[in-house]
Specification:
There is one protein chain. By secondary structure, the protein is an alpha+beta fold. It folds into two domains: 206 residues, BirA Bifunctional Protein, domain 2, CATH 3.30.930; 44 residues, SH3 type barrels. The chain is built from six helices and twelve strands.
Length: 261
């Protein structure tokens, strides 16, 4: 269980201090954060649960959120950025999550565009960003992050095999320590996103942190469905894929390797 007083102490000096909202059980921390945003909750509000009964991933996929085994957290941000930079937010969050996992566990995380956290071929976490851009201004964004920490078994039939930090590290990883590292990384990345030069570097940073961005034979599922070889990110963080019919730029969707890879 989380020690909220100790968390607040560790987060002193950050935008999250004094804004932690914990539920033993909730439907979805993202849904909680979205509702709070509509009610005027402040920038930096954090919604944390020990268990989710209706956890969601991208594309309304279920995110299994067993009690006490994972980190299920959503952060409400009111960043001073334009709506045009919104596609960079899940990428920035992925960079922050990967750094937090590395710092706490020593594990190297591979970023599968646009929002999956993998260790080798196995998925250990995911990111779901929900936002309400109006015209050119971004009023708020909710960044939801789920990370498998203590899980030892997973359902069969998953599209991507799953793993947990404990299994990969061979030791027990503290969810509390991971949460502190994650929130501090998110604050750093969100602040960088507000700076033009730092925001411009995010696609290149993701390319360096990912084995999926260049030279992988993939199938893209989503509005720009296609099959081809990944050819880098554009300035918005969209994925370029070289197909038999030419270059396709995927703005969202999911990736799977093809048999050629």
């Amino acid at each position: 269980m989380f020690d909220l007083a100790a968390l607040d102490a560790k987060l002193a000096g950050t935008v999250f201090a004094g804004k932690l909202h914990f539920a033993r059980v909730t439907g979805s921390t993202n849904a909680d954060a979205v509702a709070a945003a509509r009610d005027g909750a402040p920038h930096g509000s954090v919604f944390l649960a020990d268990e989710q009964t209706a956890g969601r991933g991208r594309g309304d996929h279920d995110w299994i959120s067993t009690a006490g085994e994972g980190l299920y957290v959503s952060v409400l941000l009111r960043p001073q950025i334009s709506a045009a930079r919104l596609p960079l937010l899940p990428l920035a969050a992925g960079l922050g999550a990967a750094e937090a996992i590395r710092a706490v566990s020593g594990l190297s995380v591979d970023l599968r565009w646009p929002n999956d956290l993998l260790i080798g071929p196995r998925k250990t976490g995911g990111i779901l960003v929900e936002a309400n851009p109006e015209s050119t201004n971004l009023l708020h964004a909710v960044v939801g992050i789920g990370i498998n920490v203590h899980q030892r078994a997973f359902p069969s039939g998953l599209a991507t095999p799953a793993t947990s930090l404990d299994l990969e590290a061979g030791k027990i990883i503290s969810r509390q320590t991971l949460l502190v590292a994650l929130l501090k990384s998110l604050e750093r990345e969100a602040s960088a996103l507000a700076e033009e030069s730092a925001a411009h570097e995010i696609p290149a940073r993701v390319e360096r942190a990912s084995t999926w961005i260049r030279g992988r034979n993939v199938e893209v599922h989503g509005p720009q469905a296609c099959t081809g070889i990944t050819a880098g990110l554009d300035e918005h963080g969209f994925l370029r894929v070289a197909t038999a019919d030419g270059l396709v730029t995927a703005q969202t969707g999911g990736l799977r390797v093809t048999e050629k890879d």
